[in-house]
Amino acid sequence: xxxxxxxxxxxxxxxxxxxxxxxxxxxxxxxxxxxxxxxxxxxxxxxxxxxxxxxxxxxxxxxxxxxxxxxxxxxxxxxxxxxxxxxxxxxxxxxxxxxxxxxxxxxxxxxxxxxxxxxxxxxxxxxxxxxxxxxxxxxxxxxxxxxxxxxxxxxxxxxxxxxxxxxxxxxxxxxxxxxxxxxxxxxxxxxxxxxxxxxxxxxxxxxxxxxxxxxxxxxxxxxxxxxxxxxxxxxxxxxxxxxxxxxxxxxxxxxxxxxxxxxxxxxxxxxxxxxxxxxxxxxxxxxxxxxxxxxxxxxxxxxxxxxxxxxxxxxxxxxxxxxxxxxxxxxxxxxxxxxxxxxxxxxxxxxxxxxxxxxxxxxxxxxxxxxxxxxxxxxxx
Length: 381
Description:
The chain is mainly β. Among the domains are: 93-166 and 175-189, no CATH class; 257-379, Jelly Rolls, CATH 2.60.120. It contains 1 helix and 26 strands.
């Protein structure tokens, strides 16, 4: 419903008119401007809160006054804040706490503040404030109701932004802010949501977490996905990485395998029916990993085409090599290099691995000279 300047409290806005270029018209211009200022100030005075002891000569709807004796606007001796409803003066806040309102109008812009405080004994109580600024509604409400004999309370806020900050005028920090709509900050669109500067949470259930940096003392997860590769664990608690999930350039030297190599300059001779064992030790082995043993040599026997045996040895593992006995032979002249790779399963801790050279009774070989090299490698993966 449109306002009526005759019956409603309307504050006239003063608008200065252009100054005439003709000096002869200056007197008329000043007289008119002074009249406009006087009319505007009159409506401002009518709309301002005043303490009065008599009623206004021309009450207008929305006019607010603080009544004192001898004026009795309600006819019951009441002294306090009253507002003109358009037909009668009423209390700005009724004794039973129903509704109080304050409304002002400047030109076509309307602003109103409505407070509703009510109580029904044992059933419901409410305290609400609504602000209507030219159609933009905001406010808050605290309502307590008894539902099946159990009181419940609800606090609702209707606003573009809700912030909590320090009452200190020197502080500009708002550690907790809620925005109900998107906004633009330094040219960047920031979506609606809750924004917290620093949060200290004992326990939280979060469905999706998007974070630049996560610092944690302990991180518990059923699986991790890193750049598309999933890391999980089997029933024994061992980590499992998806196929092709780790490239070799991401594995530090020695992180997967360890290698121990002996000097390849040792030489010995061995009579018939004799044995010679050479070994090398690997420390910090993982139980169940594979150990590869490389044995290379040059051997000269007393007689051409004599043979001898090479047998793998591993201590303390009881696991045998995949090739336990290797037949070897060597000519009496121009010896050819030979190499053998043996594999066994490691025990936890230190493993001593190597080979035993045997010129058993079945071979009856005599080794005049043998130069060898021995190396071992643990394959953890």
